[in-house]
Hints:
mainly alpha
Amino acid sequence: MNVPNAISMARIAACPVITWLALAPGTVHRYAAFILFVLAALSDVWDGHLARKHGWITDTGKLLDPVADKLLLASTFIPFYFITRRPDALDAMPWWGTMPVWVLVVILGRELFITLFRGYAARRGVVIAAGKSGKYKALIQNFFIGGLLFWYAITSTAAARDWSSGVWNAWRHFNSAWIGIMLAVAIGLTVFSMGDYLWRYRTLVRDHA
């Protein structure tokens, strides 16, 4: 258990807390969910930097880090699915309204498939580390998640304080578009990155067939 692996374990431990905070109705809880998510997302960058800088890259870390990332993804997307189905208009997702089931299936289904594929590869003595397409996908997903968590927090504050200035309305329209576009791009990269993994490790697929 080295430092990067310990950080990954801490990120895993933070996942259920983020889920609880995101689902809680209070404005303070929503800000806390946003802050904890940002810290967890940054920890992914930090542990990777430490692993490369000090040569602490291990097979355990190569498997543990993606698992932590997938749990962090599930700990936010699943709450989003339920939050957007609440009757309060403030809980709707910008541009999308409610999160479609197919979005959840594509995002989380890809993660489940890649996890199983990694397990299959590991049994054959091959460790599949995160590729560039997967990292870009994760980055855009994090932009979307962070943006939506902050959106829920700030719009709750705006409603409570009756914000109506031109600056607020301009920011609200900009961030609304940002969230909608980020989710669309994240979906595209999710599908592309899965195809990229299968292509790069096509010999494993061919051998299995």
